Amino acid sequence: MAKRSDFAQKLLGDLRLRKERLAGAQNSGGAPKAKTR
Questions:
Q1: pLDDT at residue 31, as a whole number
Q2: pTM to 2 decimal places
Q3: Whole-angstrom Cα distance, residue 6 to residue 12?
Q4: What are the backbone dihedrals phi and psi of residue 32, each rounded to the nearest 5 degrees, phi first?
Q5: Rounded CA gap, 27 and 37, in Å?
C-alpha cells in the first residue's frame, strides 16, 4: 500500500500547490489562465 499512499500524497501536494498558485494569482491581479474550474 506504499505506492497507493505515495500517489495520494503526490495528488494532495499538486492540489495544494495549484491552490496556492491560484490564490497568489488572484492577489497579484489574476492571470488569464487562473480559472481552471
A1: 53
A2: 0.51
A3: 10
A4: -60, -35
A5: 18
Q: How far apart are the first and last CA of the chain?
A: 31
- Cα–Cα dist 32/6, whole Å: 32
Q: Are 34 and 25 in contact (CB under 8 A)?
A: yes
Q: What is the DSSP string of 6-36?
A: HHHHHHHHHHHHHHHHHHHHHHHT--TT---
**Could you tell me which of 17, 20, 37 has the C-alpha nearest to residue 28?**
20
Burial (Cβ within 10 Å: 0-12, 13-18, ≥19) of residue 34:
middle
Q: What does the pLDDT look like over 1-37, one tens digit per residue?
A: 568 899 999 999 999 999 988 887 676 655 555 555 5
